[in-house]
Design goal:
The chain is mainly beta. The chain has a domain at about 1-155. The protein is globular and about 50 Å long. A hairpin with a 5-residue loop joins strand 2 and strand 3 (about 65-70). It has a 20-stranded antiparallel barrel. The protein has one helix at about 1-10; strands at about 45-50, 55-60, 65-70, 80-85, 90-100, 100-105, 110-115, 120-130, 135-140, 150-155, 160-170, 170-180, 180-195, 200-210, 210-220, 225-235, 240-250, 260-265, 270-280, 285-290, 295-305. Helices cover about 5% and strands about 60% of the residues.
């Protein structure tokens, strides 16, 4: 039974991704979330989000690091994730699952991290269930430039080794992931000027299944690191090449907020426009987002850290 529980736990998908903006994660190393990942600015202490999938609550420390995320599907079903740091380094992450108002030990897990910087940086991640079972251990190794070069995963089913290789050629850089010697993913980054002569960054990610090309995605970013277009591809065995299946273009306002999204699938075109209302604070965070023509609403209630009063003694 314990082995079955472990399998179920590893299938849990973090709900935090439902709210995060498009995020550029090139490696599989432990990720730290900040205010920027949630399109928040200033000294935000907490943010309550109400959307069609339910409610999410986010809490941040004064450094802008995420410390708590609560996703509520209804009054009795919710998930809570806690993050603990030391000097900006993630030390602990706990995923607690509640169903029908009861804490579920069988699917709740904790991640503990240890950092060794004696030589080149190494990070060890131990994943433990709330029933006390060790579900897996991940060891992350970095080179002298701080780049992730190896991930070793071990559990009761064995050991897997992922090697990350870096190469450069004619202004392009490529990161290749090899799982037990078989290619898993490649990420190629290049730069190209658009029609206006502005240089954009192009990130092409190819994914492989048992070493065979499976699907790909091309992302283009502007000078301000905003995602302006995405193309998705599937691999066509007959043509022996990637075939585009979807293209999305994004438009932003001068402050960096998403205004329009145009998606093309074959001959159909779907356009979404975004309208915002703001909280009136100096930071200018939005508190209501309307997506047309569907008229979908997302509201946010934001609280800020207040400046501490300094009392002087005369």
């Amino acid at each position: 039974m314990q082995k079955n529980y472990a399998t179920d736990i590893f299938k849990i998908i973090s709900v935090i991704g439902l709210f995060l903006l498009t995020c550029r994660t090139y490696t599989q190393e432990p990720q730290i979330f900040t205010l920027k990942d949630f399109d928040l600015r200033g000294t935000v202490k907490s943010c309550l989000v109400i959307a069609d999938y339910g409610k999410e609550e986010f809490e941040f420390n004064r450094e802008g690091l995420l410390t708590k995320n609560l996703t509520r599907y209804n009054e009795t079903d919710y998930n809570i994730t806690y993050y603990k740091y030391l000097n900006g380094q993630l030390l602990e992450k706990r995923d607690e699952i509640y169903r029908e108002g009861q804490f579920d030990k069988q699917t709740s897990i904790a991640h503990f991290y240890e950092v060794d910087t004696t030589d080149n940086k190494k990070v060890s991640e131990k994943i433990i269930s709330y029933t006390g079972d060790v579900l897996g251990i991940y060891d992350y190794s970095y080179n002298e430039d701080g780049k992730l070069i190896e991930i070793i995963r071990s559990n009761n089913e064995g050991l897997d080794e992922t090697n990350i290789e870096y190469s450069s050629y004619k202004g392009e850089t490529t990161i290749t992931y090899l799982l037990n010697g078989v290619i898993l993913k490649s990420i190629r980054t290049s730069f190209k000027k658009n029609r206006k002569g502005i240089k954009n960054e192009i990130v092409l990610t190819k994914e492989f299944l048992d070493g065979i090309p499976n699907r790909a995605q091309e992302e283009i970013y502007d000078l301000e690191d905003k995602l302006i277009s995405v193309k998705e591809f599937n691999y066509d065995e007959t043509k022996k090449s990637f075939v585009i299946i979807k293209a999305i273009n994004y438009t932003y306002d001068t402050s960096g907020l998403l205004l329009k999204e145009v998606a093309k699938v074959e001959k159909s075109v779907n356009t979404k426009e975004y309208i915002y209302q703001f909280d009136g604070e100096e930071e200018g965070n939005w508190v209501k987002k309307i997506i047309t023509p569907e008229n979908l609403f997302t509201t946010r209630s934001i609280t800020y850290y207040q400046d501490e009063l300094i009392i002087s003694e005369e």
